[in-house]
TrEMBL record:
Protein known as: Cation transporter
Organism, scientific name: Cellulosimicrobium arenosum
Spans traversing the lipid bilayer: 60-84, 90-106, 127-145, 157-178, 199-218, 224-241
Domain of life: Bacteria
Membrane topology: Multi-pass membrane protein
Residue ranges with Basic and acidic residues bias: 1-12
The Cation efflux protein cytoplasmic domain, residue ranges: 253-319
UniProt cross-references to InterPro entries, sorted A to Z: Cation_efflux (IPR002524), Cation_efflux_CTD (IPR027470), Cation_efflux_CTD_sf (IPR036837), Cation_efflux_TM (IPR058533), Cation_efflux_TMD_sf (IPR027469), CDF_Transporter (IPR050291)
An individual GO BP term: intracellular zinc ion homeostasis
Cleavable signal peptide: none
Length: 338
């Protein structure tokens, strides 16, 4: 079955699992975010890729402005430590470039070598982002332990706090934006990049809380908050690595499989559905299934039933790319040519 783009259709945001509510739900969403296989997704593949690229561009601009503001504070305060943190934030912003390249690659048509296209480049970019989050956790942890073992006085506390507030605000805004777009287009890698921005924001927040602790007469608060932030980054890392790893292993939300099966079984003329398989390739969902038709079904009738079944799947699921349906007569009876 060929890909049939239907951008005018909308899908219900339905999950096969539940989330905590209230304060616990807020903490769960902030500290264990996930990509949500079932999304209110954009159906058109090119439009989804374009929105992903747009999200990367906008976030790079916002992070660039954030870094420039921090650089201005560095120039005023003369703090070498702030300069190092600003350079770190700027370099972390550039991790979005591989994702940008992956979105552009994903637009390319399949070839005789890459017969499924280049959508997997997006998942590889997600793996790179997971590695960067892990590196952020290591750097934050080592720096916190070093400051516990060898406490260093904080200078220019007002400027340090200002830089931390700017860094946290800029990174958190980018994190929310990236994750929202990533969930809408079905991109686990873009969600992971949003988590990466959030980890950088947490690092800046640690600076702010550390300054508050020093002002309150607890100089050890700075490294202790750093260790707390390290733990938060590790929790974020777990959820992100889980989602990206599932994509690489062709893991799928079971609810999507159930919805695909129900959509196929509800079509008139189908007496059974077997071997239902779904997989994500980047932010597009590929569907395979074998349809059992009544004995004596004609070839023309089988084609009509398969076409109707494909449309049913596209209505039931988000971000559907290719749909590959094979038809077989029930009890191995032949499908006639009449």
């Amino acid at each position: 079955m060929s890909e049939d783009v239907r951008p005018e259709e909308h899908h219900d945001h339905v999950h096969g699992h539940t989330h905590p509510t209230g304060l616990k739900g807020w903490l769960h969403e902030d500290f264990v975010p996930h990509s949500h296989d079932v999304t209110d997704s954009i159906d058109d593949a090119l439009e989804a890729s374009n929105e992903g690229v747009r999200a990367v561009k906008v976030s790079l601009v916002v992070l660039g402005i954030t870094a420039a503001a921090q650089l201005g504070i560095v120039a005023i305060s003369g703090s070498v430590a702030l300069l190092a943190d600003t350079i770190h934030n700027f370099s972390d912003a550039l991790t979005a470039v591989p994702l940008w390249i992956a979105f552009v690659l994903g637009r390319r048509a399949a070839t005789t070598r890459y017969t499924h296209g280049y959508g997997r480049a997006e998942d590889l970019a997600g793996l790179f982002i997971v590695a960067m989050i892990a590196l952020s956790a290591v750097v934050a942890g080592v720096e916190s332990i070093r400051r516990l073992a060898d406490p260093q006085p904080l200078d220019n506390l007002g400027w340090v706090m200002a830089a931390g507030v700017v860094g946290f605000a800029g990174n958190e805004a980018v994190a929310v934006y990236r994750m929202r777009v990533g969930r809408r287009i079905g991109s686990a890698a873009l969600v992971a990049d949003g988590v990466h921005a959030r980890t950088d924001g947490f690092t800046s927040l640690a600076v702010v809380l550390g300054v508050v602790g020093v002002w309150a007469g607890f100089p050890i608060a700075d490294p202790l908050v750093g260790l707390l932030i390290t733990a938060a980054i590790l929790i974020l890392l777990w959820g992100t690595a889980r989602d990206v790893g599932r994509r690489l292993l062709d893991g799928i939300d079971p609810d999507l499989t159930h919805r695909a099966r129900r959509a196929l079984e509800s079509e008139p003329g189908i007496v059974g559905v077997e071997d239902v398989r779904l997989r994500w390739t980047g932010h597009r969902l590929a569907v395979q299934a074998r349809l059992l038709l009544p004995a004596g079904t004609t070839v023309a009738g089988a084609d009509r039933t398969a076409a109707a079944a494909e449309h049913a799947v596209r209505r039931a699921l988000p971000a559907v790319g290719t749909v590959d349906l094979t038809v077989t007569a029930a009890a191995n009876a032949p499908i006639t040519g009449r």
